[in-house]
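Onboarding guide, step 5: your first structure request.
Type a short instruction followed by the sequence, for example:

Predict the 3D structure of this protein.
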Amino acid sequence: MILEVDDVHAYIGQHHILQGVSLAVRRDAVTVLLGRNGAGKTTTMRTIVGLLRPRRGAIRFEGQPIHGLPPYEIVRLGLGYVPEGQGIFASLSVDENLRVAMLGEEAEGRARLGQIFALFPDLERFRQARAGTLSGGQKQMLSIARAFVNPNRLLLIDEPSKGLAPIIVEHLTRVLAEMRSHVTVLLVEQNFAMASALADDFYLIDDGRTVHHGRMADLVGDHALKKRYLGV
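The system replies with structure tokens like these:
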């Protein structure tokens, strides 16, 4: 397993949000976190990357404990994060957004840019445009590309389809499907069709706890489980 989360509890202020989240991400797989709004999915992602510190439990990346490490150290280990809401620099160009995100040698970064533009041709076309002038779908592509510009071994992607038109969601699904040959992905996604098209494994979170997990292909046919925890 590339990532293991073991009985993690986390608070926001005095509110006990995560009350026993456990999950394991297989290398070279896409794993999706599912649950209703407010279940604790985004809090789980923020805790994994060090933006929140767990009060209890353990988080291991490639066997190394990372709970308690600051976010910049976690990123340097090869774990990238695409937060909900894009998180780009609107006043910088597309090219500048990508270069600001680069770690390591410039030559290696240039090689990664070639891969990125092959996956995201719109970004190459608008390379010198200010990021704030891009469409919503293009901004989301840039947000994902910023995390992909480094040779990360695991990407955490939070709600990539949120607020996007269906045709853009279809395009984004194809891009993420292509990316899976390059990097392991832990995904939070409310769009069940997108999640089922991409994911190998799933974890269901409810009220801050892991309540079920398994192969995504099995969940697709389990209408009772989907209705109980997802309302679909």
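Each response can be followed by summary notes, for example: DSSP finds ten helices and ten strands in the chain.
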